[in-house]
Design goal:
- The protein folds into two domains: about 140 residues, Sandwich (Immunoglobulin-like), CATH 2.60.40.4060; about 90 residues, Sandwich (Immunoglobulin-like), CATH 2.60.40.
- About 10% of the residues lie in helices and about 50% in strands.
- The chain contains one helix and 19 strands.
- The strands form four sheets. Strands 1, 4, 6, 8, 9, 11 and 12 form a seven-stranded mixed beta sheet that branches. The chain has a five-stranded antiparallel beta sheet with strand order 3-2-5-10-7, with no helix packed on it.
- A hairpin with a 2-residue loop joins β2 and β3.
- The longest helix is centred in the first third of the chain and has 30 residues.
């Protein structure tokens, strides 16, 4: 009987420790972060919305210097958008913390969704209904796997005007809980290419400089949008030489140098640059 009592006591102790371990494991699991694969919609810090502090307790800070958002057109940074065109949005946290997360949306002046988002597999995911939100994923919340987040944005229709990207990022302290993190909020305004401005009207300050000693001609101009240009050279008899074709035009100041040391007879020529569909001409003399 005594042995039976001891066995019963031992069995009770084993069961007690087992339930204790299960309870503690479940308790620890419940304390772990729930948004490692992205935040619920509406955490971007946009007007009327919450930010990361809805799930993480921590300080809210100005993210103007921490959240670096760049709009890319074919890999080239742009500051304006052309309606209906698709761009790549690049976002990086300048401090590159070990654990991190973000959410971003793009709204017009009426706080309505401006354009559409598309995520990048393993890097960003998109959620939301009438408003769309770009988020980190469980594969892109460390500085090892993906120091830069990127997703596609198709710009809204003409007449939308300025679009504001709202960003809420989380510089996590890596303690496995939802406390002590730093939350950075920022806004990034992308302007629509001026309403009523055509591609040809977007070019200004065209100039040509020809160095006779090196026979190099330098074309400079400013453009309000990305495009292309070609350069032709013609003599007074109408003969035309094609110098450059489909040269890239970037937003801002452009400088293109062409070598005219080929077999061009001495005389007066007309250099024609067709930039974003608009022709510019300058007379020059080759000695």
């Amino acid at each position: 009987m005594k042995h039976l009592f001891l066995l019963s006591l031992l069995a009770f102790a084993v069961v007690s420790f087992t339930f204790k371990d299960v309870f503690e494991a479940a308790h620890i699991y419940q304390k772990s972060p729930l948004n490692g694969g992205g935040s619920p919609a509406g955490r971007s810090g946009a007007p009327g919305e919450q930010n990361c502090t809805a799930c993480h307790s921590g300080s809210v800070l100005n993210g103007d210097n921490e959240n670096v958002l760049t709009l890319l057109n074919g890999g080239i940074p742009v500051t304006n958008y052309t309606p209906g065109q698709t761009y790549t949005v690049s976002l990086v946290m300048s401090s590159n913390p070990t654990k991190k997360g973000f959410q971003s949306t793009a709204l017009d002046a009426n706080n309505l969704m401006a354009g559409t988002f598309a995520g990048q597999a393993g890097n960003t995911s998109i959620n939301g209904t009438t408003k769309k939100y770009a988020n980190h994923t469980s594969m892109s919340n460390t500085n090892v796997t993906a120091p830069v987040w990127s997703w596609s944005w198709t710009a809204p229709s003409a007449g939308t005007g300025d679009v504001t990207f709202y960003v809420a990022s989380n510089k996590a302290n890596g303690n496995g809980n939802d406390n002590g993190d730093l939350i950075y909020l920022s806004q990034h305004i992308i302007s629509e290419l001026g309403a009523g401005i055509t591609e040809s009207e977007s070019v200004s300050a065209f100039n040509l400089f020809y160095a006779a000693d090196s026979q190099l001609a330098t074309v400079t101009f400013e453009s309000l949008q990305q495009g292309s240009m070609s350069i032709n050279l013609s003599d007074m008899n109408g003969k035309i030489w094609s110098i450059k074709q489909n040269e890239l035009v970037i937003i801002g100041k452009n400088k293109i140098t062409v070598d005219l040391s080929g077999s061009y007879p001495k005389g007066t020529y007309v250099l024609q640059a067709i930039i974003n569909g608009k022709p510019f001409t300058k007379n020059m003399i080759i000695n």
